[in-house]
Design a protein that fits this description.
Elements (H helix, E strand, L loop, with lengths): L1 H10 L2 H9 L2 H12 L4 E7 L5 E4 L2 E4 L6 H11 L8 H5 L2 E3 L5 E11 L2 E14 L6 H16 L5 E6 L5 H13 L7 E5 L5 H4 L6 E5 L3 H10 L5 E4 L5 H12 L3 E7 L3 H5 L5 H5 L3 E8 L8 E5 L2
Parallel strand pairs: 7-11, 7-12, 8-9, 8-10, 10-11
Antiparallel strand pairs: 1-2, 1-6, 2-3, 4-5, 5-6, 12-13
Length: about 300
């Protein structure tokens, strides 16, 4: 048993190991068995009345014991380190980011005031997404994107489009590492609004300035005004405020790499908040990421915006 536990500790993300320490025995035993059968764990989903669901690079594994509401409440308190009030703003947006960059999606009953979610209760689902070290394919994709920026004189911008789980955030990590170190080495600002990029990048050195927890618009403004950024990276744009900040960066001649959820550029172009970016020709190219079920590496396609 001790040897089996040692194997799990060597192969499993530290956040899952922490979770094993607090999961009640029925689900703990199931998760340990599932971890021994899996490679490349990407996320763990827990839903009231449904068994554990472990998503891996090779597919999905399911437990047998239904998760209870009390189990989810205890786990959310654990993820928030006993201080749910400190995470109230992000919880109302449907997530909490852990210290190591893991993001936990949260679903439940929302209390709404003036059209905004003011509180979450009766938690019904948790989704623990595990950040991964960029694989060689992500660095190869990053090199292609950097070549495209260099060809444009480092003043054009790039939009990375992909559905959830295709590897957008992992690719941004690879891009930040490439841009912040030789031979490319540019003054690189990373606007990490959700805190998913910084825990990994802060250990990597280089010419990388991290703006963690800043709203994207404010983070981009600071990167331009006070940090002398030559390239700005930000994740999951989608609002009118994001578009205004990106237009300002473009007017200053600073290239920007951003990601957005979507299956193709046309879908993203149709969003009213982002339409001005396409109308003004901000993006020199769109990068489409796709990944087939069961495959760890993503495929990249670059096309005009």
């Amino acid at each position: 048993m001790a040897m089996a536990q040692s194997i799990i500790e060597e192969c499993v993300h530290p956040q899952l190991m922490r979770l094993l320490e607090v999961l009640p025995p029925p689900w703990r035993g199931e998760l340990e068995i599932m971890l021994r059968q899996s490679v490349g764990v990407e996320e763990l989903r827990l839903r009231v009345g449904a068994p554990l669901a472990l998503h891996t690079a090779a597919g999905r594994l399911y437990g047998h014991l239904p998760v209870t509401a009390l189990c989810l409440e205890d786990l959310l308190a654990f993820f928030c380190e006993g201080a749910l009030y400190a995470h109230r703003e992000s919880l109302c947006q449907g997530y909490v980011t852990l210290r190591d960059g893991c993001r936990v999606g949260v679903c439940g009953r929302a209390s709404v005031e003036d059209g905004r979610v003011s509180a979450i209760s009766e938690v019904s689902s948790l989704c623990l997404r595990l950040p991964t070290t960029p694989p060689p394919s992500a660095f190869a994709a990053a090199d292609e994107i950097i070549d495209m920026l260099a060809d444009g004189g480092w003043t054009s911008s790039v939009l990375i489009c992909a559905p959830p789980g295709a590897g957008k955030t992992t690719l941004l990590r690879a891009l930040a590492l490439r841009l912040g170190h030789a031979p490319h080495r540019r003054q690189t600002a990373v606007v990490d609004s959700r805190g998913e990029l910084s825990p990994f990048l802060c250990r990597c050195g280089g010419a990388i300035d991290l703006l963690t927890g800043y709203p994207r618009q404010l983070g981009i403004e600071i990167a331009l005004r006070t940090m002398g950024a030559e390239v700005i990276l930000c994740d999951e744009i989608g609002s009118r405020a994001d578009a205004e900040a990106i237009l300002a960066a473009q007017a200053c001649g600073v290239g920007l790499i951003a990601t957005a959820h979507g299956s193709d550029p046309a879908q993203i172009r149709s969003r009213p908040a982002l339409e001005p970016l396409f109308r003004e020709g901000v993006f020199g190219g769109c990068v489409m990421l796709t990944r087939r079920p069961g495959e760890q590496h993503c495929a990249l396609r670059i096309e005009p915006c």
